[in-house]
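Um, can you check?
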Amino acid sequence: MEDFNGQVAIITGAASGIGMAIAHKLLTKGARVILLDLNSGGLHEAFDKYGEKAQLIPIDVSDQALVERTVADVAARYVKIDILVNCAGITGLTNLQSHEVDSADLHKVFEINFMSSFYTSRAVLPHMMSKKYGRILHIASISGKEGNAGMLAYSASKAAVICMAKVQGKEYAETGITVNALAPAVIRTPLVDMMPEQQVKYMTDKIPMKRCGTLEEAANMAAYIVSPYNSFSTGFTFDLSGGRATY
């Protein structure tokens, strides 16, 4: 259903996991995609085959000044920015109770998971407003709605992402811009593979389908959310949870 011919998309965290899957989906649907990630090698390995349709930019998205310059350069080159998908994220240290959480690690998780999404959305919104069209998708997590024990930093940062989508959805509702979040349960990604198996089991056991979601399932839903067809949902958090969230 989704057709992205002629559209310009920026995707953070594009070198792996959900970000990579969404990038491949939009590229195969005709979009011109700007891919942001610290992992330059991962970007080239995954996206060199697309040629000029994919612009690869190694960048630390938690650096506000760099983000602002990058978005300005993209807007100058392509005249418009239709889509922003914020996928960059880390779990930080997990399997810890709150009194064991290291404040430096918590700050780092918030910088990458929440602040980078704020920086990118803040930078692209004026360009979308000038065209009276835009689609912003913040990748959150089911843990941001429910809170996962042992994952204070990650859960709290994703709760902040969800609230940002609610606020921005309301603020720009009359501008032709939609801002939504996606809250996956466990999706089998390299990020999940690095987590302690005990933590993964704790999360998977909560899913009625008793399995992880797939990257293809995440990319399919994301593609709809940022498509022109999704024109009346904003400030909303879409679930991708195998039945875990039913509200």
